[in-house]
């Protein structure tokens, strides 16, 4: 039993959307709904896991704006009527896995029947960032509950706290405007791999499995040096680890990699999902197609 991903939607940054995380999120959500054959009003829960957004917007929650733009019951719920609950989560490149874990809890309790996890990132533009490193991209996952063997297993987390020394993003005043800046250490990929491998070890050990029992490994962020270091830790070739094709993808990269791996493996394959990010934080979970 577990949460199953019924459809994956995506959106790439074009001229009109390259500075709008909101537009990318809405576009990917609408694409996801088309693939699933669902209407927006059927969404019970909408979670946004994106980080970098229009004009460094902090409030309101971007999830509420996405909900309104896709038409997921944006009005006040009527008595005994259907509404949509939406909110943001912020956990960097681990955000999508975090959102899936939260959605899994809601679905497992039968409080909801349909959840959508949305994520997007875009350069805020207008001089509000310095050397923005990520591609403009969005992704959405439509999730329901399955009572058979399919779906998401327990998520395992590992923290190797470094006070933001490995990777950090901060917003501060420069010439009377908020500017987004990034810092990255030379050891960031190794630290990501250290944390990720520890999360994987616990995940596989509790499932009484080895890495050879897994049909595909999906990992984020899509950084070549992290991929190589993680492969060493797991005792596999780097080619066994599927990542997003665009190395500049951020929070949407896990959805892209999962979609590729699921298409290649097919049911009833077993996918190991691995995410690592600033903190250093890493998570791992098994997913049965």
TrEMBL record:
Q: Which domain of life is it from?
A: Bacteria
- Spell out the SUPFAM superfamilies in the cross-references: Thiolase-like
- What Gene Ontology terms for biological process does this UniProt record contain? secondary metabolite biosynthetic process
Q: Does the keyword Membrane apply?
A: yes
**Transmembrane segments annotated in the record for this chain:** 261-287
Q: Which GO terms describe its molecular function?
A: acyltransferase activity
Q: Does the keyword Transmembrane apply?
A: yes
- Domain Beta-ketoacyl-[acyl-carrier-protein] synthase III C-terminal stretches: 204-288
Pfam families from the xrefs? ACP_syn_III_C
Q: Which UniProt keywords apply?
A: Acyltransferase, Membrane, Transferase, Transmembrane, Transmembrane helix
PANTHER family according to UniProt: 3-OXOACYL-[ACYL-CARRIER-PROTEIN] SYNTHASE 3 (PTHR34069), ACYL-COA:ACYL-COA ALKYLTRANSFERASE (PTHR34069:SF3)
Protein name, as recorded: 3-oxoacyl-ACP synthase
Query: What organism is recorded for this protein?
Result: Mycolicibacterium tusciae
């Amino acid at each position: 039993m577990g949460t199953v991903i019924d459809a994956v939607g995506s959106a790439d940054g074009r001229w009109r959307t390259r500075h709008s995380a909101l537009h990318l999120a809405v576009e990917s959500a609408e694409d996801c709904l088309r693939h699933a054959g669902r209407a927006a009003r059927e969404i019970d829960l909408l979670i946004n896991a994106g980080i970098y957004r229009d004009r460094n917007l902090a409030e309101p929650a971007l999830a509420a704006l996405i909900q309104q733009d896709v038409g997921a019951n944006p009005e006040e719920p009527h008595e005994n009527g259907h509404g949509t609950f939406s909110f943001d989560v912020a956990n960097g490149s681990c955000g999508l896995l975090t959102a899936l874990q939260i959605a899994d809890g809601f679905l497992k309790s039968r409080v909801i029947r349909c959840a959508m996890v949305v994520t997007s990132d875009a350069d805020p533009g207008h001089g509000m960032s310095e050397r923005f490193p990520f591609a403009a991209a969005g992704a959405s996952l439509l999730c329901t509950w399955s009572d058979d063997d399919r779906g998401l297993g327990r998520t395992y987390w590992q923290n190797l706290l470094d006070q933001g020394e490995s990777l950090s993003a901060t917003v501060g005043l420069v010439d009377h405007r908020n500017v987004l800046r990034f810092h990255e250490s030379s050891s960031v990929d190794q630290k990501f791999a250290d944390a990720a491998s520890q999360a994987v070890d616990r995940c596989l050990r509790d499932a009484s499995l080895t890495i050879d029992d897994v049909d595909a490994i999906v990992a984020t962020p899509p950084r070549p040096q992290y991929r190589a270091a993680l492969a060493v830790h797991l005792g596999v070739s780097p080619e066994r680890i599927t990542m997003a094709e665009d190395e500049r993808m951020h929070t949407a990269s896990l959805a892209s990699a999962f979609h590729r791996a699921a298409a290649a493996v097919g049911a009833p394959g077993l996918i190991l999902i691995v995410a690592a990010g600033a903190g250093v934080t890493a998570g791992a979970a098994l997913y049965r197609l």
